[in-house]
Each structure stands twice: as C-alpha cells, then as structure tokens.
Amino acid sequence: MSGTSLDGVDVVIAHLDGHGKDLCIKKWFGASYSFPDPLYDGLKRAADQEQISVVELSQLNVRLAHEYAHTIKTTIEAGGMSMEQLDLVGCHGQTIRHIPNQEKIAGKMIHSTFQIGDPATMSQILGVPVIGDFRLADMACGGQGAPLVPYFDYVIFTHDQQTRGCLNIGGVANITVLLPSAEIQDVYGFDTGPGNLLMDSLCRQFFNLPYDEGGRIAQSGTVHEPLLSQCLEDAYFTATPPKTTGREYLTSVFLNEFLHQSSQISLEDLVATATALTAASVWKGYETFIQPRCTLDRLIVSGGGAHNQALMDYLKDYFSLSKTPVVIETTDPYGIDADSKEALCFAVLAHETANGIPTSIPSVTGAHRSAVLGKLCMA
Fold first, then answer.
1. 147: cis peptide before it, omega within 30°?
2. Which terminus of the chain has a smaller tally of CB atoms within 10 A, N or C?
C-alpha cells in the first residue's frame, strides 16, 4: 500500500484463511519503506500537476512496480521466509487521479480513477500472481470506487454489542460505522476530508520534515480559528454521502489557502490549524451524517494520524461534544498495527478476490451492486 500522502510503501505478509466474518488472520508481520528521493519527486509531480508527459507517466508506472516488488522481497527476507512461500500479492498502487463524480469526456459523462504501479510487471518480477487496480470495478457499477477499507473493518471490528467507528487517517481520512452484529449491507462510511496530507505538505515545505512527528509542531502552535472556520465552510463537508475525495481536490482547495495565509500566520499555527481541520472535519461528518442515525461507543483510529498526539487530542476534544461518551483509541489493542492496517486490508481484499468474493459495499460507495474487485495478473 502507498497512499495519497506519498510517505512511502507499507508491506504486510499475512497468512489468511476463510472469508467474510469467518476470515482468520493466522499470523502477519509488516514493514514500511520510504520512497527514494527521485521516485518521490516523480510521483509528486504526477499527483500534483495538471500536465505531465505521457512518457514520464508510462515510465513511472513500471518504475513504481519495480519498487513495490523490491519492498516485498525485502520484507520476505527480513521475516525469514522465502519467495516460494508467497502465494499472492494484492497491491493498491499509487493514486494519480481520483475523479469520483462524473465529468464529460469525449461526449460522454464518465467517472474514473487512476493508480500506477503495474501489477503485470510485479507478477513477472516476483513470480506470483498479483491483484491490482481494485477501484474501477466498483466505479463501473456506479460507485465512487472508495473507500474500500470498510470491508476490512466489517470483517475485523464488528462487535456483538458495541457500535463502532473505524477512522483511518492516511493522506485522506475515512470513517466506517459498524452497528452491533452488523451485516455487510448495514455498513456505512465515507471520506471525511483531509487526513495527513495538509499537515505533511506544510511540514515538507516549511520545516524540511516529512511529517509532524508526534504532533509536536502542532502542539507548539495555536489554531487560527478564522482560517479553520473558513475551511469548514467548504461544500465537501456538507455534501451527503456516499462521497470520496483525493489529493487533487484537497491540494487545490485547502493547501493553496494555507499557503496563501503563510505570510500572515506563523508556521506553527498553520500546522496546528491544518491538524485541527482534520479532527474538525471528522467531527463534522460524525455530527451531520452519523449521529442522527446512531451514536458510537468507540472510535478506533488507524493510519499515520494515530501517532499524532495533537490530532488525537483534537479528536477527543471534539468528540467530547457527542450526545453519548465515545472511547477514542487506536487499532493497536486489537492486534492491528495502526501503520499496517491499510496494507493488511489490501492483502485481505486480494485474498477475497482470488476466491471470487465481492468486497465493494454499495451502502458505502453508492454502487448499484457489489463487485469482485481488482485485476488478476498471472506470473
């Protein structure tokens, strides 16, 4: 898995058995890798710019597949395993464009998504089948192609008595709502808005840091309330789910505004405000679209944002306003490392796809039916 924050590659090696709620993760381990600087620079250009040469994009598609394959081999070796023990790879790829709402192209209304990191190249390098390009099948069924993590949440975190929310804070933040003993058609979820993307971008630009480790920069600043209020007025936050967003929207709408304000607001205050925006948009999504349906007992947080203490504190402050108390915790007490959850999710999705199990959830994505996700590339 490599996400919209472009912070690198997360790899999980897992032994899976069974399907749906009977799925058993017998053992697993993982590792994270930063992108080499030249590859990061190329991916950032591809993700951020409106125009990039077809030649560079074609080359990046294959270059990234080589990087993914290398990280998988490295993780296998570090775990004391051999490649002969590996049966299947699931790879999300790197999102370059996500266009969830239909736009006119060549005379027809179309929505689409584009991930690079060619799975056919990976399968030949690794010598095992690879399943990639998970999102387009859902879009072909009328869905927005995201979020896809709710299937994993449903399988792993559904509880007999508790109403649980699973909040994944990667580059984009998304939430899954699981009622007690929920069936798959009961699952509800959507992208709440920015996750780490704005914070990370500000840290790279102004502090020469990949991210705000532990939230220390945000903790040294003060939230600029007028800027926060202005951002929360954006139409995305009041749009009714199903809804999903991506790097291109968040960069053009929010990051540009933060950069415009950088000469008037201290850099520490900018990072604090970006951090608060992530928490505030999660709360706004909960208050507007979830709390009228149900109240959460627990909010289980994963992704890089789970390590940002300032962000976790902001979340606790906002959710103290809930009608009923909400316990906020990470996935770690459940045996799921917060950093590895998304990579483990795509291992699970690939496992289900290989067995013909649909994993898109129409109540989440807006599709008119569920679909078996991904493209299988044989070695």
1. yes
2. C
